[in-house]
Design goal:
With 362 residues, this protein is an alpha/beta fold. The strands form two sheets. It has a five-stranded parallel sheet. Helix 1 packs antiparallel against helix 2. The longest helix has 35 residues.
Amino acid sequence: MLGKLVRFLFALLGAYLGYFLTGFGLKESSLLNLAAAVGVGFLLGFFLAGLFLQAVNRLEERLQKASLQEILSGAIGLCFGLVVAGLIILALPVTRLSGMIGNISAIVILLMSVGLSVAVALRKREELLSLLNYGRNNERNILGAKPVNAAKDRPAYKVLDTSSIIDGRIADLCQTGFLEGVLVIPGFVLAELQRIADSSDTLKRNRGRRGLDILNRMQKDPKVTVKILDKDFDDLTEVDTKLVRLARMLEAKVVTNDFNLNKVAELYGVPVLNINELANAIKPVVLPGEEMTVHIIKDGKEFGQGVAYLEDGTMIVIDGGKQYIGEELPVLVTSVLQTAAGRMIFAKPKEAVSIRASSSIS
């Protein structure tokens, strides 16, 4: 009903403009020209009404998808653009011209000023709204949290990336109670996880599905608070950059296994919880001279070496252990090497060390 009324009003306006532009005081011989002008204006107004309704529908869809932060920023930019356009129109002499030239000049200045101001306001919405002390509280309200005034009442947000979800240890860590607060899963991370789960590569597909299973498990755990945040940044393409920006807005920490994301977050001053670093930190300390019994499973890179693993995944390289592959062997630790990838332990069979010690004594 509203659409029909708009079309009718536009058609009447078009007909009136056709009559107005044709001129007044026409003779009877010019009535045909007048009727033609009114008809063309009526049809043109009806056509323009359709374009206007389409533009309104697109604008409505855009506003429904836009966040409150974007709408408020756009409104501020619009007001600022109108003020600037008014000042320019008053200052420039060309806009004081009467007739069509002056009107067109004023319209062009108005459109350019408003368009530029709105575009800048949307791009700088975070900085703009932070000046109004709004941006941070708004982002927290998206997650269902109340605005806070004191640091002690501030909920601890932790933004998870794709690698930490696929890894799976995050679920076990949450169950232990060592990881507190609200776990935030951004919508773009969930979309990336779904793309991996739909991959044609079998290994990637299995990893993606395992990540989705981990999320379902965490959501069903009453000890864990998980929030799916449907927030994206259209001006950014890299997922890592989006994660860092979101963490800054929420004053959150990033949970990841990704070394590169770790470095990027540090550059922006965003705290990072790296699960691999945590796993390395809680591994038991092994000192040279300690005894342990290991199960040798394969040969090492160097001649005669055997390789075993502790329960936490620490690699043990046994000099001369190749001949004991598949067996349980008591060993003595000779040295411990800490690398970027983790901790490596070097050892020798206990029997070989005992024989060498007894021979040296004799």
